[in-house]
């Protein structure tokens, strides 16, 4: 029987690549996000390549009630989630603390921290009942280090990593694995979102070096979830060759 993976934030970037990668491994897939057209085209793409089932769910992970409604809607074979990839997330803006935008800050906390909190609680309840499961949290190099003008994004990712580590302890007696993957710079729509559609600024983030790509992280997620049952990979930090940590890059001049 196929296993089931639920991937949040699968309408682009790392989540999208992960959905395709885990489908290749034979997982049935649930993909979530706000942009339904993207989810539906991903569903068609997966089905055209792989003989797996795909379910799409459009909701805003910041909305507690919407997350609850989504999980309530999962019945039968769609409820037995084997792998939850907590990937939905974003950075908004890059300003000094004193010049930060409170609306942006709320959205980052509501998505990266509270969204992850809502869905993880509900899915972990199901996993506890089944006595199995694996939660993979996509954190960031910003979950252990802070960089200039990234204050609240870094704070949100620090919280996400702390949540991941605490889940691992509480879910330990129930045989549920919890892993975190902390990427450095990955070329996705992340910077376009951060700079609110300013493509020039977004492209500049990846200029002068070869960044990670979404498939690199998807491969890593596949590696983490494919370990033997007795093995858990706790925390991975991964950067491209040109990046040492959250702030040191070796860029071509
Ligand atoms: N790219 C990087 O350099 C990098 C580095 C470290 C960590 N990360 C983390 O990796 C994760 C994925 O980012 P990415 O690089 O793949 O960026 P991306 O291409 O912008 O993808 C972000 C995904 O999150 C979803 N999302 C955002 N807000 C949401 C909301 N309120 N409700 C539901 N879904 C929401 C988006 O879907 P919709 O817009 O359709 O809702 C989209 O599918 C994030 O948690 C990010 O913080 C990225």
Highlighted features:
two-stranded parallel sheet, binds NADP nicotinamide-adenine-dinucleotide phosphate, 8 helices, 9 strands, alpha/beta, seven-stranded parallel beta sheet, 253 residues, Rossmann fold, globular
How would you describe this protein?
By secondary structure, the protein is of the alpha/beta class. It has one domain (4-238): 3-Layer(aba) Sandwich (Rossmann fold), CATH 3.40.50. Helix content is 43%, strand content 16%. The chain contains eight helices and nine strands. The protein has helices at 13-24, 36-49, 64-73, 102-130, 151-171, 190-194, 199-204, 214-225; strands at residues 4-7, 28-33, 54-58, 83-86, 133-138, 176-183, 186-187, 212-213, 235-238. The strands form two sheets. Strands 3-2-1-4-5-6-9 form a seven-stranded parallel β-sheet, with helices on both faces. Helix 3 (64-73) runs parallel beside helix 4 (102-130) and helix 4 (102-130) packs parallel to helix 5 (151-171). The chain is globular, with a radius of gyration of 17 Å. It starts with a strand and ends in a 15-residue tail after the last strand. The relative contact order is 0.14. The mean pLDDT is 97. The protein binds NADP nicotinamide-adenine-dinucleotide phosphate (NAP). NADP nicotinamide-adenine-dinucleotide phosphate is lined by residues 9-15, 33-35, 38, 60-62, 87-90, 111, 138, 140, 183, 185-186, 188-190, 193, 214.
